[in-house]
Amino acid sequence: MTIRQLPFLLLLVLPVAACTWVPLEPEAKQVRVVPAGAPPAGCTKAGEVEVSVQHAVGFYDRDPLKVRDELETLARNKAPSVPANTLQPLGEPANGSQNFAAWNCPR
Prior knowledge:
This protein is 26% helix and 25% strand. The chain has 2 helices and 6 strands. The longest helix is centred in the middle third of the chain and has 15 residues, at 64-78.
C-alpha cells in the first residue's frame, strides 16, 4: 500500500469503525429509565451503574444521540445484575461515559 492509498482506506474503515450497535439483553427489557432529578417515589436505591462506549474514532466524533442511546442500553443490560429494575442518569454523558443510579421500584 502506498501513502496515496491511505486516505481511501481511511474513508472506507472509519465509518465502519464508528458504527457500533449495543443489543438490549432479554432480561434488560423490564428495566426502565427515569429522568434525572429527584429520586423516584417509593423506590429503594440498589447502587450505581457506570458504562462507557467509544465516543470518537480518531478525529471523527460519533453522533451524540447514538452514544447516549448506547450508554442507556448498556446500563439497562447491567441493571439486572445489581439487581435493579429502574435507572436514573446521574449526569450527562461525558467522553463516552455515564453514571446511573440503580433503583428497585414497585411495579
